[in-house]
Amino acid sequence: MSLNELSPKDTAKFFIAQLFGDEVTQGKIVQISNDTQGDRLWEKYLNGLFHQRFYSAYAILREAFSGGAPNRLA
Questions:
Q1: CA terminus-to-terminus distance, the chain
Q2: Model's pTM, two decimal places?
Q3: Rounded Cα gap, residues 30 and 28, in angstroms
Q4: Which tens digits make up the pLDDT trace of 10-53?
Q5: DSSP letter string over 7-52?
Q6: By C-alpha distance, which of 69, 3, 18 is closest to 32?
Q7: CA angle in degrees (0–180, nearest 5) for 35-61-52
């Protein structure tokens, strides 16, 4: 299955789960993936470590979707 076949929320959930691993709960991963649809994550999650990972996920998604990320991680 390719990333293009996943919904934006599922794509975000996959990358957030990969980048954060066991550091956040499954519920928090779902919450963050839902928040990617319209919120500015750096304003909502003030932990600087989160910011680095949000930008990493965004960069991966931009590359995977040829410059047009399906959701708004940053």
A1: 25
A2: 0.64
A3: 5
A4: 887 888 888 888 888 999 888 888 777 666 676 777 777 788 88
A5: -HHHHHHHHHHHHHGGGS-HHHHHHHHHHTTTS-HHHH---HHHHH
A6: 18
A7: 65
